[in-house]
Amino acid sequence: MKRDAVTGGGCLVSAAGVVGAVWLWGASDRTQRHLGNKFENNGQDFGAVLTELPFVFLAGAVVPAAVWGLGVWLLGRRRGRSESSRASEFHA
Questions:
Q1: Confidence at 89, pLDDT banded by 50, 70, 90
Q2: Alpha-carbon gap, residue 58 to 71, rounded angstroms
Q3: Could you tell me the pTM of the whole model?
Q4: 2, 21, 25: which is closest to 65 by C-alpha?
Q5: What is the pLDDT of residues 24-48, one digit of tens each?
Q6: Integer-rounded Cα radius of gyration of the chain
Q7: First-to-last C-alpha distance (Å) of the chain
Q8: What sign results for the dihedral spanned by CA atoms 66, 58, 37, 42?
Q9: Residue 19: partners with Cβ closer than 8 Å, 6 or more residues away
Q10: What is the DSSP string of the chain?
């Protein structure tokens, strides 16, 4: 795999992770309760948004990118091992 393709794939996975994490966080009952979806906005707390949203955003970006990088590293290692075994067969 080309290095540009790996980098582009990692960026796409990271962006999808951010969108998915923020959407899932926003759709949860706990977040809806903090944003005031109760009777007459009782219990509205925007502090939860300010403290939780940056962590949700970072986790959504970092976790998928880390998994992507680990997969690319393992596949590259596996390919390198199979190529070195083929080379040793021809040299023997």
A1: low
A2: 20
A3: 0.69
A4: 21
A5: 998 988 888 777 766 666 667 778 7
A6: 22
A7: 29
A8: positive
A9: 60
A10: --HHHHHHHHHHHHHHHHHHHHHHHHHSHHHHHHTT-SGGGTT--THHHHHHHHHHHHHHHHHHHHHHHHHHHHHHHHHHHHHHHHHHHHH-
